């Protein structure tokens, strides 16, 4: 069996189709501008990307990766603020066990300090009203 004859029978080159000019597709209109939801005090303080965790932990030395893993477990800034200190410690231990990755000592203190500061800020806002 001739291998050249086999391939030339299956694939035929049509030179007339190769010469056809390629037409430019019509330009795609830009997507409509999406409006951002209005910033409330909570969304401004907590941020929006990781359930507010990057805004909560930002000034406290907690790595973005740590905040992302906490968000992956389903925690948001508002749920962390509602937790007790023992529950926060359990959450951080679970984070270490589930992802097989250790939190830095400063991160543990940073998480606790950020949550305490946010609780204090919310409590002061409630007292003012």
From TrEMBL:
Span of domain Floricaula/Leafy protein SAM: 48-127
Subcellular location as annotated: Nucleus
Comp. bias (Pro residues): 24-40
The organism's place on the tree of life at top rank: Eukaryota
Single GO molecular function: DNA binding
Keyword tags: Activator, DNA-binding, Nucleus, Transcription, Transcription regulation
InterPro entries listed in its UniProt record: FLO_LFY (IPR002910), LFY_SAM (IPR035079)
Cellular-component GO terms for this entry: nucleus
Region described as Disordered: spans on this chain: 1-45
Record-level GO BP terms: regulation of DNA-templated transcription
Function comment: Probable transcription factor.
Family the UniProt entry places it in: Belongs to the FLO/LFY family.
Name of the protein this chain belongs to: Floricaula/leafy-like transcription factor
Organism, as annotated: Brassica juncea
Gene that specifies this protein: LFY
């Amino acid at each position: 069996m001739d291998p050249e004859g086999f391939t030339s029978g299956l694939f035929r080159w049509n030179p007339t189709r190769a010469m056809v000019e390629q037409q430019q597709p019509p330009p795609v209109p830009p997507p409509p501008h999406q409006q951002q939801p209005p910033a409330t005090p909570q969304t401004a303080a907590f941020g929006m990307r990781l359930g507010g965790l990057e805004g909560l932990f930002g000034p406290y030395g907690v790595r973005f990766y740590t905040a992302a893993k906490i968000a992956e477990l389903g925690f948001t800034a508002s749920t962390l603020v509602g937790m007790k200190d023992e529950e926060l410690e359990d959450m951080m231990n679970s984070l270490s066990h589930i992802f097989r990755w250790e939190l830095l000592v400063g991160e543990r203190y940073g998480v606790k300090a950020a949550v305490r500061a946010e609780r204090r800020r919310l409590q002061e806002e409630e007292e003012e009203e």
